[in-house]
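Researcher: Let's do a round of design. I'm pasting the structure tokens now; please hold your answer until I've finished.
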């Protein structure tokens, strides 16, 4: 396929045609450029992302009884939806069986401390494939399920990280659509977003549109809270049983590794895609607390050395003889060297794990470089020719009557050209892009102008939603028209200067 041959098809898959009247984030078509890179299986970025772009599938059942069932049958015994298990965390108290609240307080709190209270836990239901409602989505509980946590903190705005995260999510959903039984997603920044689910073609399209429309990025990264929320969802909702957790983030943060590992148990798998190489380091207070309260052999040795140091300092302060003082000072210097060496060793060990807890918790952990503008916006002459062909296809529709969909395509193409003009450096390509932008705007004005009545006067019937879309398009392109008219006037002025050889006038001071 040519560079931009599938531009409008991808825009439709992203759900932008159906919601173009809503607020769209800046440079939203950059997702197309990155997704185009990921489509190339030989590209280094695609190969690096391969382990998370296609996670392992659940093993299909081999039991004879299951194989003989009709593909339209569903077997879901109610008693198999959940099973009893002991609580893992104090937070699970909200899910325990109600009758345990009748226990005497002393017994209840003892069992709570010992974590011997019982709660219902979802198990993987025995659901068999059903007749799919559409060709694009084949639900099957035996296939993989993925729960995505998407970082939308303000740092994701840096170096195209949010565009890369959206493109990876789009690529993942698109290429696993036939294999996935269910896709769930929450965003997180300073807060954790609501749960979105894709279980059929329609909800998949809604989820894709929701992701593409993310524009407001929050201050802060509630990573720990997001992970616990996901774990609670995976344990509480039977339809999510067996889902793998995929975290897409750029953040480095410190987590309570042991508590999260305990909350995950043996059945919840975490996979992580980290964008960029952001790192965090322990502060002075945290580092000192780590040295003072650690419980390893080295920590205990360090505390003894510090006690020895204080003892020598007291002895030196009360020793009168110079020889004795010198001997004790030599011993103090030696102890200080031992303290410094052991402290450095322990802090280096802390640096290896501090802020790397997510990596240690993940079954698959991939850290990729930030993607630069030069890697994304690689416009070639072939690509520019494709953009001209897209415009020609829209213009050819005018002979049969322009419709709202064609105008939507016109605006999306215009936005993409404006974005390319901000990043393409080649002057020849820039000049051709500006010419295409001018032709596109002239055509838009000839079809619509400044008022909705110019378009409706052609006798084209429109629904209320289409009229709303068109009003948005008029408002959306108003600023572009001003800049385009300046370009046109600039061209006209240069032509007149070339024809009449008009020289610039100089004013005498």
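Researcher: That's everything. Go ahead.
Model: Designed sequence:
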């Amino acid at each position: 396929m040519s560079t931009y041959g599938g531009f409008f098809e991808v825009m439709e898959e992203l759900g932008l045609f159906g919601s173009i009247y809503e607020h769209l984030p800046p440079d939203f078509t950059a997702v197309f450029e990155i997704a185009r890179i990921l489509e190339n299986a030989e590209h280094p970025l695609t190969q690096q992302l391969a382990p998370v772009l296609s996670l392992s599938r659940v093993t299909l059942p081999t039991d004879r009884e299951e194989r003989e069932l009709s593909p339209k049958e569903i077997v879901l015994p109610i008693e198999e939806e959940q099973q009893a298990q002991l609580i893992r965390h104090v937070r699970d108290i909200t899910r325990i069986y109600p009758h345990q609240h009748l226990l005497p307080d002393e017994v209840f709190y003892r069992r709570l401390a010992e974590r011997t209270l019982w709660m219902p836990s979802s198990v993987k239901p025995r659901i068999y494939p059903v007749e799919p409602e559409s060709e694009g989505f084949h639900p099957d509980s035996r296939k993989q399920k993925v729960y995505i946590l998407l970082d939308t903190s303000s740092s994701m705005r840096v170096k195209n990280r949010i565009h890369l995260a959206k493109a990876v999510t789009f690529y993942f959903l698109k290429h696993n659509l036939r294999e996935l039984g269910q896709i769930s997603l929450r965003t997180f920044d300073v807060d954790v977003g609501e749960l979105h689910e894709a279980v059929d073609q329609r909800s998949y399209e809604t989820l894709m549109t929701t992701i593409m429309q993310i524009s407001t990025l929050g201050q802060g990264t509630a990573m720990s809270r997001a992970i616990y929320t996901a774990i609670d969802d995976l344990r509480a909702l039977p339809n999510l049983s067996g889902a793998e957790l995929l975290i897409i983030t750029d953040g480095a943060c410190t987590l309570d590794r042991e508590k999260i590992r305990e909350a995950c148990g043996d059945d919840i798998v975490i996979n992580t895609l980290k964008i960029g190489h952001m790192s965090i380091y322990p502060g002075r207070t945290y580092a000192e607390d780590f040295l003072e309260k650690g419980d390893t052999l080295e920590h205990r040795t360090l505390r003894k050395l510090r006690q020895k140091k204080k003892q020598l300092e007291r002895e030196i302060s009360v020793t009168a003889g110079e020889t004795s003082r010198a001997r004790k000072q030599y011993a103090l210097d030696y102890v200080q060297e031992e303290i410094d060496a052991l402290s450095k060793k322990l802090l280096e060990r802390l640096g290896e794990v501090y802020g790397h807890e997510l990596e240690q918790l993940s079954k698959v952990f991939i850290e990729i470089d930030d993607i630069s503008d030069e890697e994304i916006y690689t416009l070639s002459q072939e690509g520019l020719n494709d953009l001209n062909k897209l415009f020609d296809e829209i213009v050819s529709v005018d002979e049969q009557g322009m419709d709202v969909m064609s105008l939507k395509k016109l605006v999306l193409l215009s936005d993409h050209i404006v974005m390319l003009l901000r990043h393409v450096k080649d002057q020849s390509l820039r000049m051709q892009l500006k010419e295409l932008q001018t032709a596109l705007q002239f055509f838009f004005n000839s079809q619509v102008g400044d008022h909705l009545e110019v378009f409706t006067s052609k006798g084209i019937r429109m629904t209320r939603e289409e009229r709303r879309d068109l009003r948005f398009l008029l408002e959306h392109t108003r600023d572009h028209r001003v800049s385009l008219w300046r370009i046109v006037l600039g061209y006209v002025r240069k032509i007149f200067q070339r024809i009449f050889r008009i020289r610039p006038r100089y004013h005498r001071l």
